Amino acid sequence: MPGRRFRLFFVASALCSAIVLGAQIAPAAAPGANDPWPGLVQDIFNNRPMNDGAEVIGIEMPYRAEDAAIVPVTLRTRLSPGDNRRVLRITLVIDQNPAPMAAKFELGPDANVTEISTRVRVNNYTDVHAVAELSDGKLYMTKTYVKASGGCSAPAAKNAVEAKNRLGQMRYRQFARSGQGPASGTREAQIMIGHPSHSGLQMDQVTQLYIPAFFVNELRLWQDDSLVLAMEGGISISEDPNIRFTYVSNGAKRVRAEARDTDGHVFRNEWKIDDPGI
Amino acid sequence: MAHGVSVLALLMVLGTSTLSRAQEQELPVSEVAPKIFVHVGEIALMTRENEGATANVGFIVGDNAVAVIDTGGSVREGERLLAAIRARTDKPIRYVINTHGHPDHVFGNAAFVSSGTVFVGHRNLPQALAVRGPFYTDAFRRIMGEQLMEGVRMIAPTLLVDGTTKLDLGSRTLTVTSWPTAHSDNDLTVLDEQTGTLFAGDLLFLAHIPVLDGSLRGWLKVTDELGTLPAQRVVPGHGPVSEWPGALADQRRYLTKLAADIRALIARGEPITAAASTAAASERPVWQLFEDYNARNATSAYSEIEWE
């Protein structure tokens, strides 16, 4: 059952977020053509050194993007329990997409988020990089490779009318986590926000259509006032952004979410956690 | 004299080769009802080898004019369809109807551009072509190669259908209907009431696994509504020309099963990745290209049904 929906605040705000991730444009290239990664390290990470992230972070995606518009991706932190370093943030980069920087996740200091799953658009055959920044101040990188989908699937909305109708709806759901009783404190939950996430379209010469980019660029989630997870998103995040994640409960009785989009809308919602111990 | 004979022989060879090439160029079609011709596409993914000719395409000849229904997966296929038309009639092609905007149905459009021809499509088709066109042309350059993709252009309809539009071909009227989001968000059907022949586009798949690029719940609803149309036979978007409305049964069963499996997965809290590998698995033996599209259908359906 989806989590109980409480109140939905739809605030059309004039405060347009300064974070626009659609700005980094890289030309699509065939596999084996110039590797865009070094340029992306410069643009996104200011050329900071990349350390081998095999022991720090894992990334899972299907080898083939079945549906170009909805490609599941799961990030898992791999620090051993004895490691006193902490993952501060994880950046997801889809090298060959028009806007390669897909998302940046900030992990709440006390939430111990170890797993994040979301869905992205994949335009081409591409490397996908996950870069974790640890509390030691270093970056750790791991990557996977995804084949583009074939056929008629495209990294675009399937049902524009429905997407518009859902604008700003939020849902929160908590899952029973098999094999881990309440004693572990680990929870699994999902936040969904209805949004068409248009990647935008320049003036089309034939139809004279023009569609401005319109997407969720910020989503934050708290248990009481303690940050669990924040995401800065770009147009590579699938429509109706959806994040499933694990965290450790601090005993809070409510979860709160706030999202912003590129038009300055602010969407807020909160949910009561009936039994934070479960 | 020997010289003259060899010239004659050469001319004969040239003549035969031109003739056989013309025959080769013609897309094979069969007359499924009086003056309604259909090419049944290969049940396959679009490739360089099959020249993208995977969808069913056809044409209807009236007393005054011709309507083409879908143009195929390459300009080359469009040209071969044009050759098949010209081998049967010299009446002008007044309408090119695109049943929706997927590459295997519209990539041949450029072969039919001429001053007297009107392109007809769903009111959502121009936007779909504008948003997806550049992605499709890039992707299929990779898949089918530059040569086949040369000349492929997204040609948007100028006659937009929102509800029902009648097209007069001379003693023959076609009813073109736009549908709510189902297989895609720009599906049209074409009904020739005179012969009870329905071109369903990709609102109906037979033998080829249905491909979901719109709304699963919408498609199930449209499948039921389609069943009430007064037709005797249907030309599906993929698969053989079949009796109506019995031809809907397999697709309805598949879509129903997919929806039920996805709902159960979501109720159990299973993630979207589980849907790709398990949903509708019982349908595997029934459909061609199951491995190519079922995981995709399940992924798409999951992201829709979780909002129920």
Description:
The complex is a heterodimer of chains A (278) and B (308). Chain A has 278 residues and is mostly beta strands. Helix content of chain A is 5%, strand content 40%. Chain A has a single domain, classed as SoxY domain (Immunoglobulin-like). A ten-stranded mixed sheet of chain A has the order 1-16-15-12-13-6-5-8-9-2, with no helix packed on it. In chain A, strands 3-4-7-14-11-10 form a six-stranded antiparallel sheet, with no helix packed on it. Chain B has 308 residues and is of the alpha/beta class. Chain B has a single domain, classed as 4-Layer Sandwich (Metallo-beta-lactamase, Chain A), CATH 3.60.15. Chain B is built from nine helices and 13 strands. Chain B has a seven-stranded mixed sheet, with no helix packed on it. A six-stranded mixed sheet of chain B has the order 8-9-10-11-12-13, covered by helices on one side. In chain B, a hairpin with a 4-residue loop joins strand 8 and strand 9. About 5% of the residues of chain B have low confidence. At the A-B interface, helix 2 and strand 10 of A face helix 4, helix 8 and helix 9 of B.
Rg of chain B over CA atoms, rounded to whole Å, is: 21 Å
Identify low-pLDDT runs of chain A.
Answer: 1-31
| Tally of helical segments of chain B | 9
How much helix, percentage-wise, in residues of chain B?
25-40%
Mean pLDDT of chain A equals: 84
Label the overall shape of chain A.
Answer: globular
How does the overall form of chain B come out from the CA principal axes? globular
Q: Give the helix tally of chain A.
A: 2
Tell me the name of the CATH class of chain A.
Answer: Mainly Beta
Strand content of chain B: 15-25%
- Class computed from helices, strands and strand pairing of chain A: mainly beta
Q: Helix/strand-derived class of chain B?
A: alpha/beta
Ends distance of chain A:
15 Å
CATH superfamily of chain B: Ribonuclease Z/Hydroxyacylglutathione hydrolase-like
Q: How many E strands of chain A? A: 16
